[in-house]
Amino acid sequence: MNTATVLQTSLSDLTLHRRGKVRDVYEVDAESLLIVATDRISAFDCILPTPIERKGEVLTALSEFWFEKLKDVVANHLIESNVDAMPPAVQRHAATLKGRAMLVRRAQVFQVECVVRGYLVGS
Questions:
Q1: Among residues 46, 35, 19, which one has the least CA distance to residue 79?
Q2: Are 84 and 91 in contact (CB under 8 A)?
Q3: What is the pLDDT of residues 23-60, one digit of tens each?
Q4: Under CATH, which number does the domain 15-105 receive?
Q5: Can you give the residue ranges of every domain in the chain?
Q6: DSSP label of 33
Q7: How many Cα neighbours within 13 Å face the side chain of 97?
């Protein structure tokens, strides 16, 4: 278990593909990417200055749960979430990545966003 707060990653063996508000994405090879969930907080399209420790691990666990739960309903891009089973260039950063990284297939993005703000109905 990694208890250090991760605001931003810098993985020397991998090329940074993009940095989002919460996730850092690296190129692993021609077919796959590494998505790393950090502890940054994003609200109202802004990155807030105070991180939440282990937030990235929670986000990754939620993603893993839903990808597994829905895998028979719709295909997804997840290849592996166990860092020890990922390529050596990723494994070298295991101390930072455990619990917060997913190796995924490159895919065409289908832009959908769902925002929940504490309402059961309406907004």
A1: 35
A2: yes
A3: 999 999 999 999 999 999 988 778 888 899 999 999 99
A4: 3.30.200.20
A5: 15-105
A6: E
A7: 26
Taking CA 9 as the corner, what is the angle to CA 8 and CA 11, rounded to the nearest 5 degrees? Answer: 165
pLDDT tens-digit readout, 52-87: 999 999 999 999 999 999 999 999 999 999 999 999
With 0-12 CB in 10 A as exposed, 13-18 as middle and 19+ as buried, what is 56? buried
Longest CA–CA span in the chain (Å) reads 48
Distance set, CA 95 to CA 17, 23, 45 (Å):
21, 17, 29
Q: Taking the model in full, what pTM does it have?
A: 0.87
C-alpha radius of gyration, the chain, whole number: 15
Q: Which two tokens stand for residue 58?
A: 């929670």
Nearest residue to 23 via CA among 54, 48, 59, 49? 59
3-class secondary-structure state, position 114: coil
Nearest to 37 by CA among 50, 19, 14, 12: 19
Residue 25 CA, distance from chain mean position: 8
